[in-house]
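Project standup — Tuesday

K.O.: blocked on the structure for the chain from last sprint. Re-posting the sequence here as requested.
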Amino acid sequence: MLKKSMFFVFTLVLSFTVFQTALAIPPGTPSLSTAQSQLNSLTVKSEGSLTGYSRDLFPHWITQSGGCDTRQVVLQRDADYYSGNCPVTSGKWYSYYDGVTLYSPSDIDIDHIVPLAEAWRSGASSWTTEKRQNFANDLSGTQLIAVNASVNRSKGDQDPSTWQPPRSGARCGYAKWWINTKYRWGLSLQSSEKSALQSMVNTCSY
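H.V.: unblocked you, prediction finished:
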């Protein structure tokens, strides 16, 4: 009888682990107080030009340890579950921006929270190619997330003054990630961007 009970408990735990809905978010999300402090410390200045910009100047989806490229690593990190390795062939993902559940990697983009073009206009134009590569493949911070491809493409290279996640509940986290990325990488922001971020942070309860 004890063995049957233990097996039943194990089955319940296993089922919960496999089928629960994960809320995958980038590592290092700051607290509300930290995000506010970081926002206050960012340099506010007019946005720079896109002259000379190219995505090729930000080499991305480079090979990481284990042989997977950056995209595949984020697909694995942010999945509830997945099949395949490099490449991931299927799985289940919750798109934080719009609340949509996806099952095919082809429906998913890996979003740069701070777009590459936005980074260029905010200070990355003066970086070395190596530093831009590190930025574009930043797995240790709040810069990359797997989301619905269609909603990511509606964002393009806009900042929070002109684009915010359509799911209102995602805007606090998104603001924190944007602020933290700009803080960590020493990027500036424009006044309209700061005002939008402050309004988003004001909605945070955590």
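K.O.: great, moving the ticket to review. The chain has a mean pLDDT of 90. Helices lie at 2-19, 32-41, 70-78, 116-121, 129-136, 149-155, 171-185, 191-201.
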